[in-house]
User: What shape does this take?
Amino acid sequence: MPTGAIIAIVIVAVVVLIIAVVAGIYNSLVKLDERVNEAWSDITVQLKYRADLIPNVVETVKGYAKHEKETFQMVTEARSASMGAKTVKQAAEAEKEMQGALGKIFAIAEAYPELKANENFVKLQSQLQDVEDKIQAARRFYNAGAKELNTKIKTFPTNVINNIIGHFKKRDYFEVDEAEKAKIKDAPEVKF
Assistant: This one.
């Protein structure tokens, strides 16, 4: 076999190998990106489900605590913010507001024993707890996917290929803000 033919075969093999590696890396980025998109979709589905439950909780509590208009307004505003969130950061902020508003609703419920015993309220409370658990699981799944995608985008040789393609972007984590992190980090002081 002539030397020119061998060189041509080697060049073709190297080009095919490079194309295969680039295609493999690109496809792995596509899969990770879609996994993160799916995880974000799961979060939004759970947030929507919870937002759909909120009016039922508010109406049930309103029947017992008609004078708590400020709290009901806060819940309504938090629900609107949650439904209108478009980015991970906006959703995290809306979540913080929603948690505070729901906390106030359940604090009101504590003051009304007949409300706490109401079958509808108990059922709604159980459904909300279930959806909160699902939101937490969806957040963990999303953050794991975001971490994997972000790591892959930053590591060699994927970072080189992504810089050339420029298609895949770093994803934000869905996490609590700095003030909330500080509260979690510092254990509460118990005094008797």
